[in-house]
Amino acid sequence: xxxxxxxxxxxxxxxxxxxxxxxxxxxxxxxxxxxxxxxxxxxxxxxxxxxxxxxxxxxxxxxxxxxxxxxxxxxxxxxxxxxxxxxxxxxxxxxxxxxxxxxxxxxxxxxxxxxxxxxxxxxxxxxxxxxxxxxxxxxxxxxxxxxxxxxxxxxxxxxxxxxxxxxxxxxxxxxxxxxxxxxxxxxxxxxxxxxxxxxxxxxxxxxxxxxxxxxxxxxxxxxxxxxxxxxxxxxxxxxxxxxxxxxxxxxxxxxxxxxxxxxxxxxxxxxxxxxxxxxxxxxxxxxxxxxxxxxxxxxxxxxxxxxxxxxxxxxxxxxxxxxxxxxxxxxxx
Length: 333
Description:
With 333 residues, the protein is an alpha/beta fold. 34% of the residues lie in helices and 27% in strands.
């Protein structure tokens, strides 16, 4: 494919520099043409190191570049919606890091922005494009493990650094927003419906206010999903799907490696998946959607529904009651 989508990147977040940009540079559908930082020297150094042609000292300058068709937004969570709106207003398609907003109401404003500007906006849940997840969902929907009745998930890492943005409440930090969003998204993806109600328990850091240990139960029409996420536990991740006739275990569900095969266990049978890069697949598929060759992998409405579940877990932890995710398309009652 020679008709590559021309991408610009706002910010120099670690995930952009180490994961997303190198992966998209390997894609036949993407061309990273510019990167911006509020520190021009940093943008220039990054551009040189990653072989990106243009560097800008402000996000506004990058958005004013008419040669750029799409923006990758890996900024802190509180800047996801504001800069996605600005990019869309500049006529740019947007791939925005998860979670797409600070809450469902804020994220819901992107529906009107998308419809008014005509651009595509997608949340960067790269896991949804990985072959191991497409196959897991296919196997479950085909009845391989009978009727799916329960999902259990775990995702953790240890990061007590008070200067890290993941430990800043006002920036959208905390375990649920950073990593708990993954088991929520995957549970909705596999059950292929929304939870009727949720219940959450949260422990917060006394100094930062961020949730450091969160456990939630999602009550779906056909079963349950239970997960724990934490920013103060040893690193670990696993998703297990329990059916009436078997189980599926996804061994590295979220940070799937790009240098070795991945595998899932269907009962005691191992299924291997060839080496691939989920960030490259994500960029390729969204670029193809921009060109009109396919539908985007994750509709914006799906992302808003994910935020509604996150919001409900937070509410439940406060009320100590079951809470229903908000109704309505745009994150409002």
